Amino acid sequence: MKNLILVFGFLFLLTSCGGDDDICLNADSTPRLKVKFHDAQGRLISLDSLYTYVDYGNPKLTNILSAKDVDSVLIPLKVDDSPYTDIYFKRRINGDSSKVRINYDSKAIYVSPACGFKKNYENLKAEVLKSNPVSSVEQNNTSLTDETTINFYLRF
Question: Cα–chain-centroid distance for residue 143?
Fold first, then answer.
């Protein structure tokens, strides 16, 4: 009888957990900023190399991309209550870097017990604080709720 109660108790525990609460999918997490590149004439281009760093408030910049033949980059923004994120772009490892500041309003959205909260960003605005190699920024979308749309085009 005692074994029967243990078996039923174990089966009850297995069936009481909801499957959708166990896994946090990409759509349930904080989206990353999507950036593509234009040349001086406004045509889409791929870069032969790109180094991207983000200032998350640590003493050292965080390298999020070091790649060759790049046509776009997904950049995680700050998830604290900061109103902006500074991003640095370089074409060569020892070359000049451009500083681009992304300003935004962030909003926390509850997803599930397993995932907790995610951040969405609205009123996105970009400004080039230090040019070379990036000369300007073209805005494409002012909200960041998923990773399917391009938010900015960087002009090299």
Answer: 13
| Omega within 30 of 0 (cis) for the link into 59 | no
Q: Long-range contacts of range 11-14, CB-CB < 8 Å, 24 or more positions apart?
A: none
Contacts of 98 (CB under 8 A, 6+ apart): 88, 89, 90, 128, 130, 131, 132, 133, 134
Partnered with residue 37 across adjacent β-strands are: 154
User: Which pTM does this prediction carry?
Assistant: 0.82
Torsional class of 126: left (φ above 0), alpha (ψ -120 to 50), beta (otherwise): beta
Q: Which parts of the chain fold into alpha helices (H)? A: 2-16
- Cβ count within 10 A of residue 140: 14
Average pLDDT on 103-110 reads 94
